[in-house]
Amino acid sequence: MNTTIYKIVPVLLWQEARRVGQFAGAPVDLADGFIHFSTRDQVMETAARHFEGQTDLLIVAVNAAALGEKLVYEPSRGGALFPHLYAPLPLDAVLWEKPLPVGADGLHVFPELAP
Where are the coiled-coil regions (predicted)? Predict the structure, then answer.
């Protein structure tokens, strides 16, 4: 599967994760019982569907291989396989975090993403 997966997260929530040393998930993750991630091919649609117009977001790149068997690819939107983590995200699996600003067209402006 994909070697890098992505999480869109509000800045304040990520700052709290940094403070405590792991990311337990956003409210939707906690309600669903797993942390939602996207692949490179999915993350822009995820942003458009679930974060439209939201500012103060980060995109976090994660080394999928570092997550072990707790990372499961499961069918979701249209049958596509989405990465779901059934554990808190250890911060040592994070490759980088970058701002995810909204452009003049109202869409998020993504940095270059690895496959």
Answer: none
Instruction: Say what the pTM is.
Output: 0.94
In three-state form (DSSP H/G/I as H, E/B as E, the rest C), the secondary structure along 38-91 is ECHHHHHHHHHHHCCCCCCEEEEEEEHHHHHHHEEEEECHHHCEEEEECCCEEH
State the distance between the two ends of the chain, measured CA to CA, in whole angstroms: 10
Contact 41, 25 (CB under 8 A): no
Distances, alpha carbon 98 to alpha carbons 62, 75, 82, in Å: 12, 27, 21
pLDDT tens-digit readout, 55-76: 999 999 999 999 999 999 999 8
The C-alpha atoms of residue 98 and residue 61 are separated, in whole angstroms, by 9
Q: Which residue has the tokens 């939201």?
A: 54
Q: Taking residues 30-35, what's their average pLDDT?
A: 97
Q: Which residue ranges form the domains of the chain, and what is each CATH number?
A: 4-99 (3.20.170.20)
